[in-house]
């Protein structure tokens, strides 16, 4: 791993090397350049949000393998995720543009394959991002449901359990607030992003220390590090199979770090509307250096902090079957029950546990906010080349240089993607499964092109992996291929319409739609990224 001096540096330490590099690529800036490396990191760290991912899928980790799968599986997923992140960071340093993965694929696939490569990568990325926002904000709505349930007496004390219609209303209200916040100037988003990163960091330390300390009964170190739970009530008995399914918690959590690439904020696409603003600004300063730092640091810090959170909470776990039972006070929401019981056992009241859930809820809220930010930048960039229906609408920016229409589009799509939950949770799970697999496929595609088609002519930026770039790239691609297969396996036997894993259906359906639209229409007019520099 090396840092090279950018050709744009020229000895002038005060120059924005990312801006110069972008002009070398043939593009000018249109989004406001106000994000520092800390702000860029903050957006990715807030979207990864270990409090969000681990809290949401802690029940899955307990059910499939339990403590051993969570404590050691976290590092398995973390190590391979870092390989993906390092490869993305290397490409990001070479091509610091807000189109991110979409643009990278076009440049790395070569002139012949550029349009198709950018088309398929862009659609998998943007739909995957919308699915992430959907799953994050809907998870927050469910967490609010549990907080209200516990606050009004719990499942066994006559507490109020909000209906699925109330939950979807919570989801809509959360999305509305996120759209409003994302309509503010980028300086405000920078502040919220840094506050969110600080909240996530402090929140993890507070919870990982407070919960096991307050609990009157704590698990032994042997239980936390070696206990492997095979009692999953899913008809799955193979230890390897159980471990693989338990990895979903870790891999779902460690997603979204491509936000650092989208917040580079360059306008890497042709301006179809000549009235659009043409300012020489960008959202991340020195993007060819700070973008890679944002990606790598967000993953690395999340791995360390997330493991601490898993350990702290798991030391307060005693009775796994009870925590997963729908008859407990939290209605089967395992981590909420852990918090609630820890405080109730010592103080006779679970109010402290509810406060802890409130800390998590705030973190999840900011995760959703940052996710909408990333969504809108990708929608803005992708629509600049006419890749989306009504593209001329979505690529407009307002006087504050915010892609306002793309912001509200992202919120609306995330609301629509949650509506299937009213009919069936199975249908909803099929929708949000794209959040992990679909997003990682979009991560892997430009890396695949970098280690194959572009292997001989790839020009590294200031950050590069040197001679290990191709090796790390292949590790990343093979890992994504592996989890795509593993997370498509059945999660319960016998397989019925109610237990079928609809992930391959959802992801396969997306691929079919994207490929069909290309063959039938897009291949005739879509040319991929085009320079927006006059002359």
TrEMBL record:
Indicate where this protein resides in the cell: Membrane
InterPro entries given in the database record: AA/rel_permease1
GO MF entries: gamma-aminobutyric acid transmembrane transporter activity; L-alanine transmembrane transporter activity; L-glutamate transmembrane transporter activity; L-lysine transmembrane transporter activity
**What's an example GO cellular component term for this entry?**
membrane
Question: What keywords does the record list, in alphabetical order?
Answer: Amino-acid transport, Membrane, Transmembrane, Transmembrane helix, Transport
What kind of membrane protein is this, topologically? Multi-pass membrane protein
Which residue spans traverse the membrane? 37-60, 72-92, 113-132, 138-158, 165-185, 191-211, 293-317, 347-368, 402-420, 426-449, 470-493, 499-520
UniProt key word Electron transport = no
Query: Which domain of life does this protein belong to?
Result: Eukaryota
Q: Which family does it belong to?
A: Belongs to the amino acid-polyamine-organocation (APC) superfamily. Amino acid/choline transporter (ACT) (TC 2.A.3.4) family.
Q: What is the official name of this protein in its record?
A: Amino-acid permease BAT1
